[in-house]
Amino acid sequence: MELRNVLVVDPVDGEYVANVRVSGRKIESVEMSQGSPSGLLIPGFVDVHTHGAAGVNSMSMEAGDLEKWERFLYAHGVTFFIPTTVSAGTDEMLRATGIVSDYIKDRPATSVRGIHYEGPYINTRKKGAQNPETIRPSTLNELHGVITDDVMIVTMAPEVEGFFEALEFLKKRDIVVSMGHTDSSFSLIKHAFEAGCDRMTHYPNGMNTLHHREIGCVGAGMILPLKLEMIVDGVHSAPEFINLVYRVKGADSIILVTDSIDATGLSEGLYDLGGLSVTVRGSKATLDDGTIAGSTLVFDDGVRNFRKWTGCSLSELAKVSSYNSLIDLGVRNRGRVKEGYIADLVIMDSEMHVRETILSGKSVFKN
Ligand code: FE
Question: Do residues 44 and 345 lie in contact, with contact meaning Cβ atoms separated by under 8 Å?
C-alpha cells in the first residue's frame, strides 16, 4: 500500500508532506515529498476507557459482540481500545476479561488490546454511575484472582483500604494504576504519586474539586506531573476547562478517552450500565437522579472538539489521541507515522473527518 502526498502528522516529528509506504503490518518508509497534500495521515486513535458502543456493553457482551464493537470504532478512527468494566463482583470481572482474552487470542489483528477495570476499588462518595453495592476495598487475595495477563489498567481510589499494597502488586506486573472515583486530599494524591501512581481517570469527573485552601484532586491533577484522561464532549467539562487544562499541563499530559456506553451510536432511549438504568437524550447520558453516566461520545468528535477548544497543533492532537496513551501503557511499536512502526493509521480530510482507517497495514474502514 502506498499513500502518496499525504500530510503526515507525527507526535514527535511534527507535520510534513510525504509518501508513505506500508508493507505487511508495518510502515516500510516515509519519504518527504513536494506538492499539496491530498489528506492527513495521523496515527490511529487509542481509547483506553470505553464501556461500550453500538449496543455492545462490556459487562453483558457475548463472544461475538467485540467484533461489532471494533467495527463501529473503525469508522471513528480507533485502532486500539480497551474495553472497560464498571464496579462488579469478581465473577463478572472475570467474565468480561475472559471474553476479551479469547477474542484477542483468536485474531491475528484486532483493535481490542486488553481490559481496564474501572473499580470496584473506589470511593462510594464519588461513585458517579457505579453501582455502590459492588464497591469494596481491594485485597491481595482478590487481586490474585482477577488480574490476568490482559488487564492493562485498574482505576482505584487512593483513600480506599488496600490501595498502596495493590499499587505495588500491580506495578510489579506492569499494570497501570489510575486514580479515579476518589475523594482524596491533595496530600494523599501526592503520596500516591510518590509511590508510583502517575495518572488520573476521567479528570476532573468523579473526584473532589479545587478549593484554594485544599486544592484536592483537581488541584493535584493540575500541579503534579500526572497524566490525565479527559472526556472532551462538552458535557463532562466545559470547553473552557479543557482549554485551561491544556494551557496548564500541555499536550504531553492529556489522554483523550470517550468513556462511551453501549448507547453510543444508537438512538435516544433507556439503557443499562452495570445494572443501573441510564437515559440518553441528545449527547447526555444520565441516571434517574441526573448523575452523568458515561458518555455517548465518539472518539473523532472528541479529537475535533479538543482542536477547536484549545487551538492545539496537529502533532499535539496526535499526542492526546494516541501517543500519550501508548507511552503510558508501555507500547513502543505503535502511535507514530514512522518507519518500522505498526501501520495503525487514519486518513482524514482537512475538516478532520475520517476517510479511511488502517489496522495493522490493512484497510478496515473507508468512507
Ligand atoms: Fe468513571
Answer: yes
Catalytic site positions = 259
Q: State residue 161's pLDDT score.
A: 98
Model-wide pTM > 0.90: yes
Q: Which of 254-263, 265-274, 352-361 has the lowest mean pLDDT?
A: 265-274
Query: Domain 1-43+335-367 classified CATH 2.30.40.10?
Result: yes
Cβ-contact 61, 111 below 8 angstroms: no
If pLDDT is split at 50, 70 and 90, which confidence band does 106 have?
confident
Burial string for 6-29 (b: 16+ CB within 10 Å, else e) reads bbbbbbeeebebbebbbeebebee
The answer to whether residue 246 scores a pLDDT higher than 80 is yes
Question: Is there a common fold for 1-43+335-367 and 45-332?
Answer: no
What pLDDT, on a 0 to 100 scale, did the predictor assign at position 40?
97
190 CA → ligand 1 middle, Å: 21
C-alpha cell at 28: 516500510
Residues flanking ion ligand 1, Cβ below 5 Å = 206
CA of 295 to the centre of ligand 1 (A): 10
Label the pairing between strands 345-348 and 227-231.
unpaired
Residue 342 CA, ligand 1 centroid: distance in Å:
30
Q: How far apart are CA 109 and CA 83, in angstroms?
A: 16
Residue 135 CA to ligand 1 centre (angstroms): 13
C-alpha 39 – ligand 1 centre gap (Å): 35
pLDDT tens, 165-176?
Answer: 999 999 999 999
d(CA 210, CA 298): 29
Task: Indicate the domain borders of the chain.
Answer: 1-43+335-367, 45-332
Its CATH class, for the domain covering 45-332, is alpha beta
**Ligand 1 mean position, distance from CA 43 (Å):** 26
Higher per-residue pLDDT: 187 or 266: 187
